[in-house]
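Changelog-adjacent note: as of this version, every example in the card shows the full chain rather than a window. The one below runs 528 residues end to end.
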Amino acid sequence: MVLYYKLGMDNDQTIFQNPNTQPKTDEPVGMNVVPPPPPPPQEAPVVPVQPPVTPEPPVEEPLVQAEPQPPQGLPVEMKVTDKAPPNVGPPKIPGNRMPLVKKLVKIGIGIVVVLLVFSFIFSVVIPMITKNSGGKVTLTYWGLWEDSKTMQVLISDFERQNPDIKINYSKQDIKQYRERLVTRTNDGNGPDIFSFHNTWYPMLSGILLSLPTDVISNEEFNKSFYPVTQKDLVKGGAIYGIPLGIDTLQLYVNTQLFQAAGLTPPTNWNDFINDARTLTVKDKDGKIQTAGVALGTFDNVTHAPDILSLLFLQNGVSLEDMQASSDRIISALNFYTSFAIDADNVWDDTLDPSILAFSKGKAAMFFGYSWDYFIIKQYNPNLSFGVALVPQLPNQKVALASYWAQGVSAKTTHPKEAFLFMKYLALKSTQQTLYAEEAKTRAFGEPYARVDLADTLKSNPTVYPFIQDAAFALSSPFVDSTYDNGLNQSLNTYLGNAVNSILDGGSPETAVDTLIQGAGQVFQKYGQ
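Full-length structure tokens:
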């Protein structure tokens, strides 16, 4: 479908048109034989003797070397001569150094073999014996967003049911989390269970272990969780993660400003444009004092990649084949940037980051997720605001989901126990407990990932919109706040360049061509 976005259009026009290492010797070793000279005329008597003990040679006298001696007990003849043999120096011992080298090499090899054996015993045999001996198994669990005290409630309940298993939960810093996770796992000292973003499978496929059917079957998974999770977490028929919650991008509105203007939150893009223009206040020099909506630029719009992903998906862009959708990408980018460059612009790059501007009451509308509620409240506890569903095109329902799942490491030495914990996390009662514990310290807990719990949130108008759209939500790798330094952020860099190029007066077609080429390289790098 082709987008026709323009701020100055008539109210009754539609914005989107829906398309479609010694050698052996016999000589005695350790002695050189020198033949004696012919005997003198007077022959020395032959005296049978015992094998002689060779006296120590006098100092400075030449050595007299004897012929080889037969075995002890046999008579020998000793011929005495008045001529000394030549001074031949100390005896040479052939092959004395080489056997020493061989011996040292053998010792070295022996040490290496011993070390390898001990390493194998401690790294493989002992863990296996421990695992199969009925002793207590300890699992390491890396999380990101859930508070340690909250998670301990779930963990304590699981440990009561499984007394031979202990869970050590560690809340991680999101900065460089993905790189740390991959490196530690490949080094063999990573967690047994860990959190990961729904778009990270291409980057983590080598360290994720699929869940067996006795943990959760495909049928049970599809029945319990939203369709978007089936696309993100099920690969080749194998399930790789369990979501603890789900979130969708929604529209935050300043209720005070809306009421003062006599407006209600828009449900379609035509009304959205009109409301944005109506709620924008400028001074006499045309500088924006109150923005109708935080939209149009990239660097100072919170969740700009997510908003653009929403527009792409609603406009029928195939993120698997962006080249075939180039026209639709162009129209979506033109619509997005028009809020900042048209004569009747409602936002610009001089304004505060959008979540801050909204918190200050300087922006009437803001696109965000459920966790943004707590950031806004922290900035301005007294701000009056609400949450509404994102605008839609006629005759369709499309939303954007961004959420985190829990997976089992392919390097875990305790898969059986890890799978038991994953099965526990997927339970309806577990997710209810998690929500309730989070709500004790906040306005609400993490929106449920299970479909059968959606209706329990109807009484909370703040959190319910994030669940209402979950059934129609799709996912996109163009999302922020994952801090992955990989797939997401690389794609966002190309997307930001495209937006800024258009804002600077560049050709949308050129900007999109560059975006598609860059995104293609990123997808290829991560095996998509």
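Structural remarks: Residues 105-129 form one domain.
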